[in-house]
Amino acid sequence: MVKISKFLAYLLFFLLMSIVFFPKTNLFYLVEKELAPEKIYISNEKIESRPFGLDLREASLSYEGVQSIKVKKAKFLLLFFYNSANIEDIKLSSIIANYWPQHIQSCKVEYMLFTPLMIKAIAKGDFGNLRAELALKTKHLKIFLKPSKIMLQRYKKTLHYFKKLENGEYLYEKTL
Amino acid sequence: MKKLSSNKLIKIITILLFLTLLAKFIGVVFLWILPSATEELQQKNIMLMPYRRVDFKNLIVAQQYHAKTIQKRKVVDASISDMVLHGLYGNGSYGYAIVSTLANPKKTEIISIGELYRGYRLKSIALNYVIFTKNNKEYILELDQSKSAPDKTRYVTPVQNSDGEQTLSVARKEINFYVENPAKIWQDISIQELKQNGEITGFKVTHIRKNSKMAGLGLKRGDIIIKANGIALTSYNAAVKLYQQWNKLESVSLIIRRGNEEKELIYEIH
Q1: Does the predicted TM-score (pTM) go above 0.80?
Q2: Which residue is closest to A67 within chain B, CA to CA?
Q3: FRET partner for B205 with CA separation of 20 to 30 A, picked from A110, B120, B135, B169?
């Protein structure tokens, strides 16, 4: 029992050290490289590597050459067994404003080792509150939305894509 | 006993050091494998070419008459009512006036006292008008107040060109208003992409607010915008690129499908 505990302690130490010494900025460059064929580019970002994560500031995300999203601050926490991205102050392009309110206050995306086939996200903004789940095995996406007044009044046509639930939430489902 | 625990501690430190070095080594290996530079967006052809409408019919007609008209290109006397006084300086028999014709208000000329402009001689300058003479008659030309006066003109003015084709003259400040307040666009108009076999074929106007600035542009509910400045709107990218250039354009042409017919809306931005 003592031996197993020792082994686990050493393993944990090794994992933490591996995360500390891992080139996280280069890992981010790899993500960018993988996104490029999909015509998704992250630009103007200021990257700051931390022992257990990465900070991004003033990043712009472009899709098909069109600047679509501006992010003021994003904090990535990489702990292998628990990974998260805290994104703050997101502004969507004015062209998207036709379908969705432009300002997203915060968005948190989590991936845990204990639920390896699930990515979860929660977000808050002018649209209201949202939680999303993506099942990695089936690629099934579920978005639960608690719409704000603005969303209910001005974005009715977007809500048509959602299914109204009994608890007042709206559900959007899609298999990617 | 002390020696034993000290040995144990050294063993633990050695293992930890070894693990740290191993982690560092793995980090260096990954540093070598992973890309070392960011992927930058290559902004190819993001600038739209300045749009110029060319009417080939006019080109042929112009060539036919070119020889005849070229000799007649002398300064022709204008009527005083066809002239615009943009500014003046001086008083009485000293100073100058800035004038142009109504037909070409941007082509201004500075005329000193005693000089001729389109057959009229500048005689004197008053507070807000000047006096021209022609054939011993005096003509008063008042200062154009339209720029300083509050703008009560419509922001979209229909203008009939020589071919009887209607263009809409749009004030640039109205364009800038929408550029600075993009949310206002979607309060005044709603558009939705139209798809055929998964490809965007145009953008349909699904709602347009009555009496809004957008409604003044001549678009109607149900119109399908298929081309803008000669570029087929087959992607959001094309539409957004035009939108990004919106405040720099001098003219915009929209090809729309209204019912069963195609129509061209031409806007001159001034």
Answers
A1: no
A2: B240
A3: B169
Using CA coordinates, name the residue in chain B closest to A32.
Answer: B39
A89-97 long-range contacts, CB within 8 A, separation 24+: A90/A125, A92/A68, A93/A66, A93/A67, A93/A68, A93/A69, A93/B240, A94/B182, A94/B183, A94/B185, A94/B243, A95/A66, A95/A68, A95/B236, A95/B239, A95/B240, A95/B243, A96/A68, A97/B182, A97/B183, A97/B185, A97/B186
Range(s) of the domain holding residue B260: 156-269
Q: In chain B, which residue's Cα lies nearest the Cα of A33?
A: B39
Same domain flag for B165 and B255: yes
Q: In whole numbers, what is the pLDDT of chain A averaged over residues? A: 90
CA distance B37 to A82: 27
Q: How far apart are CA B23 and CA A64, in angstroms?
A: 39
B18 interfacial to chain A (CB closer than 8 Å): no
C-beta of residue B121 within 8 angstroms of C-beta of residue B134: yes
**What kind and span of H or E run contains B167?**
strand B166-170
Q: Which CATH number does the domain housing residue B209 bear?
A: 2.30.42.10
Instruction: Tell me if B57 is assigned to some domain.
Output: no
Per-residue pLDDT reduced to its tens digit, B165-179: 556 777 777 777 777
Question: B126: which residues sit within 8 A by CB, 6+ positions away?
Answer: B91
One-letter identity of residue B250? E
Comparing CB atoms, the residue among B34, B182, B240 nearest residue A27 is: B34
Is the pLDDT assigned to residue B113 strictly greater than 80?
Answer: yes
Residue B60 domain-assigned (yes or no) = no
Chain B residues in contact with A30 (beta carbon < 8 A)? 34-35
Banded pLDDT at B5 (limits 50, 70, 90): low
Do the interacting molecules here have an ipTM over 0.95? no
Contact with chain A for residue B240, Cβ under 8 A: yes
- d(C-alpha A27, C-alpha B130), whole Å: 74
Residue recorded with tokens 């070894």 = B18
Write out chain B residues lying below 8 Å of A32, CB-based: 35, 38-39
How many domains does the structure of chain B reveal? 2
Q: Give the best residue of A95, A100, A153 to mutate against chain B (max B CB count within 10 A).
A: A95
Q: Which residue has the tokens 């709206």?
A: A170
CB contact under 8 A, B30 and A22: yes
Of A10, A29, A94, the CB nearest to B19: A10
CATH number of the domain enclosing B117: 2.30.30.830
A102 touches chain B (CB under 8 A): yes
Clarify whether residues B162 and B255 are in a common domain: yes
Q: How far apart are CA A152 and CA A145, in angstroms?
A: 11
